[in-house]
Design a protein that fits this description.
mainly alpha; 57% helix; respiratory chain
Length: 101
């Protein structure tokens, strides 16, 4: 499944996320990493020093998604700034239709 505007693919299906009871806000391109992390957390009784590898991999994926969105937004802002400052055309005093003969 391809997600518009992202370089990462959705790997986990909706059925897998529903079965794993992944909360809706966490159903993103990193959900396939959250499912085994949550299973590990439940098996290890949420001990903070357990499941470090799974947590690190999941958090790295989330970080990459955030950075991708930030870079994309920065490019959009730069394009808007360039279009506002670079292409300002003055309002013509004589409309084009007046010059038509």
């Amino acid at each position: 499944m391809e997600v518009e505007g992202s370089s990462k693919k959705m790997i986990a299906t909706q059925a897998e996320m529903v079965e794993a009871k992944v909360p809706i806000p966490y159903r993103d391109q990193c959900a396939h990493l959250l499912i085994p992390l949550n299973k590990c957390r439940q098996a290890e009784l949420y001990l903070p020093w357990k499941c470090e590898t799974e947590r690190h991999i999941y958090e790295k994926c989330e970080y990459e998604l955030v950075m991708e969105r930030m870079i994309k937004m920065q490019k959009i802002r730069e394009q808007e700034a360039n279009s506002k400052s670079g292409k300002k055309s003055p309002i013509p005093l004589i409309p084009n239709t007046a010059n038509a003969s």
